[in-house]
Amino acid sequence: MIMMQTPLLLSSFVKRAEQYFPEKLIISRTSEDVIHRIPYREFAKRTRKLADALTKLGMRHGTKVGTFAWNHHRHLEAYFGVPSTGAVLHMVNIRLSPEHIAYVINHAEDEILLVDDNLFPHLAQLAPMLKTVKHYVIMGDSKEIPETSLPNVHAYEALLDEASDTFEFPEDLDENTPAGMCYTSATTGNPKGVVYTHRGIVLHSYALGLSDAMGIRERDVAMPLVPMFHVNAWGIPFASVFFGTTQVLAGPGFDPAVILDLIEKEEVTISAGVPTIWLAVLKELEANRRDVSSLRAIVCGGSAAPKGLIRAFEEKYKVPFIIGYGLTETSPLVSLSVLTSKMEDVSMDERIDIRALQGIPIAGLEVQIVNENGAVPWDGETMGELTVKGPWIASEYYKDDRTADAFRDGWLYTGDIAVMTEDGYIKLTDRTADLIKSGGEWISSVDLENALMTHEAVFEAAVIAIPHEKWQERPLACVVLHEGQAANDEMKEALKNSLKEQFASWWLPEDIVFMDELPKTSVGKFLKRALRDQLDSYFKVT
Amino acid sequence: MIMMQTPLLLSSFVKRAEQYFPEKLIISRTSEDVIHRIPYREFAKRTRKLADALTKLGMRHGTKVGTFAWNHHRHLEAYFGVPSTGAVLHMVNIRLSPEHIAYVINHAEDEILLVDDNLFPHLAQLAPMLKTVKHYVIMGDSKEIPETSLPNVHAYEALLDEASDTFEFPEDLDENTPAGMCYTSATTGNPKGVVYTHRGIVLHSYALGLSDAMGIRERDVAMPLVPMFHVNAWGIPFASVFFGTTQVLAGPGFDPAVILDLIEKEEVTISAGVPTIWLAVLKELEANRRDVSSLRAIVCGGSAAPKGLIRAFEEKYKVPFIIGYGLTETSPLVSLSVLTSKMEDVSMDERIDIRALQGIPIAGLEVQIVNENGAVPWDGETMGELTVKGPWIASEYYKDDRTADAFRDGWLYTGDIAVMTEDGYIKLTDRTADLIKSGGEWISSVDLENALMTHEAVFEAAVIAIPHEKWQERPLACVVLHEGQAANDEMKEALKNSLKEQFASWWLPEDIVFMDELPKTSVGKFLKRALRDQLDSYFKVT
Description:
Two copies of one chain form a homodimer. Chain A has 542 residues and is of the alpha/beta class. Chain A has 16 helices and 27 strands. Chain A is 29% helix and 26% strand. In chain A, the strands form five sheets. In chain A, strands 2-1-11-10-12-13-14-15-16 form a nine-stranded mixed sheet, with helices on both faces. Chain A has a seven-stranded mixed sheet with strand order 7-6-5-3-4-8-9. In chain A, strands 17, 18, 19, 20, 21 and 22 form a six-stranded antiparallel sheet that branches. The first copy, chain A, starts with 10 loop residues before the first helix and ends in a 7-residue tail after the last helix. At the A-B interface, helix 1, strand 9, helix 7 and strand 16 of A face helix 1, strand 9, helix 7 and strand 16 of B.
C-alpha cells in the first residue's frame, strides 16, 4: 500500500480530545438540580474504564450494548467506550411504545443495557419480554443499585470504580466495523434498524466540521437538544469530541426555560433540535427575555419549520436559523440551508425563503429527486422522490426484508417528496405517505402547513389527506391556535382567505379543524397517521 | 455491507462543483497579460474533454501522465481529468536540475507529458534522455504546436476541440487507486517519489475544509502561491473544487506586485506560500500600499517564518498569519498554528509566539516526537524526531529502497527535530541533517535563525554546522542584511550582542558571515547543504 491504511475509528476521537483538549468540558445535566462539569481528560479515563467494566461483564467484538437514556456524559461515555472495543452501541428510543421497545432490544439482541436511574422503573416492567439481556447497568450519580427483583443489575459508577483507566482500545479494527445502531419508526409494523460503522461516523464528523456545513470547531459550545437516542443526536456529540468542542448535554425533562438558561449561562454557540422545541423556546424567550447573543447558529430539522419561527430568530435575535435535512438512515446529515456567496446580499424575505428550504447536500453526498421519468429538472416545480447516496448512508435495514423497498440501485429512496430549486436546494413537499393526490394532481401538505403557520393566529398546523369520492383525496387542515385566539367560524374564514391569496383553488383545504394539540411522534414530528385515524370518521367519503 | 461503500473519489468533486457552483470562477493567469475566467461548469466540461482526449492518446488505468507547468486552469483540469479515469498524474517539479527532471520522468515512467508552452523549450532539450514518453501535449492559449523536431507533439486546446464533453468517469474505482505523485528532494541522491491515492486526497480535502483548520469554504477566494507541482499546491486546488470555492491561479513568473494586485482586485480571502514569498510581498506592500483587507488568513509553511513577518501581517495588516507544517510525504497538511479558545485573549506578543509554532495536528492525524527514550514529554524542551501517522500520510517511497529509512512501525519519520509545547504544539528546531551537535549537546539552528531575523537590520539568516576539533560542530551564521544596511564589524558586533541576551554562550555562533543572498531549494527553503559546501573552506577545522 502506498498510503497508510490507518482505519477511521472512533477511538481516535477520544485520544485526540484527551491529548489536545484535556481541560475542555462536557457540561452534563443529569437531573433537575445536578450539573456535572467533566473535562475531556476525565471523560477519556471514564470511557476506558467503561470499556474495561463492560468487557468484564462479557462484552466482546460484535456484542450489542443498548442504552436507555437521556443526553448526559455517561451516555457520551457509552458512545465511545462501547464501539471503540469493537462492540456495537444500540441507542434505544425511550419514547417508543413498550411493545416496540421490547421488539428493538430483542431484534438487536442487546446483551447489556445501560439504563438511566430515572428510566429504570419503566424498563424494568418490560424485562420479562426481553430475551437476550444478561446485565442491566444503572446510570446515575449513586453507586447503589435501586431496589429490584431483576438479577445482574449493576451501578455504573460502582463498576467504574473497579475498572482500569488504562484499558487500551484496539487500533486494528476494520473501519467498516459496526459502531452504533438506531431504529426508526415505520409507517406500519415494527421499527427498522439502521447500523452505523466507524467509517460512516468519522466521515460524518468531518462533514459536521466543514465551514460550509455546521462548522463545529474547538471554540464552539455545542448543545444538541435532539436526543442522543435519535440518530446519534445528529452526530453532534461525536463531532464535538473529535474537535475538542465544549458540549452541553441537557439531561432529562428539560423545558424551554432550562434550555434558555443553559444557552445564557454556558454561552452556547450552536444548538440543534426539532421545530417543536424551537417554537416552544421562542415562546418562552418572548415571555422572559434572555441573552442568546452567544448563539452563532441554530440548526433545525426533523420536520418543516414555520417561516415565522425562522424570521423571529434571524431578524429579531440575529441568530442564523439553519434548516437541516436527514433521516435515521443517513447518519443523519444530508443537507443544510446554508447561504452561498451569491445569496449573501439578498433581502431578509428572500433570506428566510432560502433558510426554509432543506438546502444543498453536504460535500461527499449525492442527491437526486426522481420520478417516473428519471431525475427531475431543477425547476422548483417538478415533484419526485428524494434519493441519496454516499459514504454515511445506510445500505440496508438490519435483518429486515423491508430493505428492498428503500435501498435500490445503490440509492436510498427516502420516501420524501421534494422539488429541486434552480440552485439545487431541496424543498420537501411531502412524505410519499402524506402526499395528497387530488384529481390526479399532487398537492403538497407541507406548503399548506407552512402557509397556515405564517398566520399570526396559528401556533401549529398539519394538513392530511382525506378520502373523497370525486377527487380521490382532498386536503384537510388541522390547526392549533395561539393561546387567547378564538377557534370560531370567523377565524376559519380568515385562514381560508389567507390561503386563497397564495394557492390555486383546488389546493384549498376542504375544511379546517381546530384542535388543542397535534399528535406527534417520539421525535416531535406530526403524527399524520394518528391524525388520519382520528379524523377519518369526521370526513366521510361523500 | 451495512453502510454504502461509496468510494472516496476525485471525480465526485468535479460533479459537485459543476452541479452546485456552475458559475463560480477559476481565475487563471496564463501569462503576463492574459487572465482567463473559467466557470466551474466550463471547467467540468473541459476536464471531461481532457480525459477523453488523453484516453484517445492511449491513457489507461494506471498510466502515468506528467505535468510540467505553472499554476493555471489547464493544470487544474489535469488534476482531475487524469486521476478521475484511473490514471495517475505526476506533477514534475520544474525547478529540479535537468538530470533530476529526466530521472523523475523516467522513474515514474510517464507516457504522456503536459507541458506549458513557455516551458516547452526547456523540456524539449531533455527529450533525448526521456525513455518512456510517447506524447507531448503543449498547454497554452494557441491551438498551433510550436516548431519542434519531436514527434507526437499536440496542442492542448486543439485536442480539447476534438474531444467529447460527455466522457464519463468510472464510479467504481477503488478509493485506494493512485491519483497523483510528486517527488521530493533528498539530502543525497535522486529525488524520492510519493504517490497519493484518491482516498488520501479526499480525506485531506475534508481536513482543509474544517473550521479548525484552513476552513476553506464556498465563499472563499483561495489563491495558492505554492506551485501546483509542489505537493498538490498543499491540496488547496483539490479542496477548492470540492467546496465550490473561487480560486486564483497565479500562473508563471508572478512577482510580489502581481500577487498584491491579484489579492486586491480579486478580493482574495486566503492565500498560502513559503516565507520567502511572504517576505517579498511584505516588502512590496510596505513600499506600495494595497488594500489587503479581503484576506481572512495567510497560511505559511515550508520553512521557519521570522516573527517580524508574522507580526507585520497580524498587527499592522490585521491578517491572521498561520504557520503550517507538512511534507511531500504528508499530502502535506500535518499541523497549523491555529489559536484554541484558551488562547483567544492572549497579548499580541504571546499570539505571535504561538503563531510562530508549527501548531497542533489536524483532526485525523497522530503526531509523536520521539527520541531514544520513546515519545518525549510535552515540556517545550526535550528534542526528538517528529513522527506522523494517518490516512493521508504516505507509507512508502515509490519503487525506492530508501523507504525503510523513513517509514518504520507504521510511522513516518520526518527527519525534522522538534519539541512539543505543554499544549501539544509542535515547535521545529531543526532538520536531523542540520542539527548542530556541540560538545555532545544539541543547538537549534532554527532558534538562532529566528532570533537573528527579528533584528531590524536582518533580511534573512541561516545557521549551519561547521566542523570543530574540540566541540565536533559549532554554529556559523550566514546573514543577508536589508538594503542600505552596512555589512561591517559594528553590525557583526550588534548582532552578536543581541543574541547574547537570548542564548547561553555556547549557543552563540562562532562567526557571522554577510552574504548577498542565501542559496535556496526549488521551493524556497534554505539550501544548507550548498551553504556548507560554500563555507566549508572558510571555517577550517582548527
